[in-house]
Amino acid sequence: MKNLYGLSLMLLAGFMFAASVAEAASSGGGAGITGSSQLTGRESADTHYQQAEKRIDAEDWKGAIALLEKSLARNSRSADAQNLLGYCHRKLGDYDRAFEHYARALELDPKHLGAHEYVGEAYLKVGNLVKAKEHLDKLRRLCAYDCPEYRDLRKHVIAYEKARKGDSR
Fold it and tell me: Which of 36, 83, 149, 165 could form a disulfide with 105 if both were Cys (CB 3.0 to 4.6 A apart)?
């Protein structure tokens, strides 16, 4: 009986380990511009979304916007597509539309690392350091200082603060 109990514990531990390895493999960090923890199956199979990422890499903001809107017509609950729409509008200087899309991305996924980073950068572009720091703090809490989104936004905040100090001299 003692051996059966020990064997059961070993099997349970093995299953738990296998499950954690499988979960880690399936939720591998999204690379590139998305800044998301992971893409859903819909985004990975969405050719409009994939083409939009290529347009973004080529800095074709308007082309990417058109493709992301088509992607959202198929999957209106994509925080990743909303985040990228915000990014494209920000790059075009349309901050009102950028903020709308970042807000929608964060409504869909309040823990979306990329959306927190990009909206923080947008706030710096419009001179709102307080709001940028709010998103930096959210990133700090979400990833405990150790994610590229936190480090990137922090770098932008520091550069912004240094530039402001330089302007006041």
Answer: 83
pLDDT tens track for 116-127: 999 999 999 999
Residue at 104 is within a domain: yes
18, part of any domain: no
What's the CATH number where 103 sits? 1.25.40.10
SS3 of residue 139 by DSSP: helix
Neighbours of 133 (CB within 10 A): 18
Q: What is the reported pTM? A: 0.73
For 85-98, write each residue's pLDDT tens digit: 999 999 999 999 99
Domain count, the chain: 1
Cα–Cα distances in Å, from 43 out to 4, 52, 53, 70, 141? Answer: 46, 11, 11, 12, 27
Does residue 83 lie in a domain region?
yes
Structural domain for 157, as ranges = 38-167
- Considering the chain, what is the average pLDDT of its residues? 81
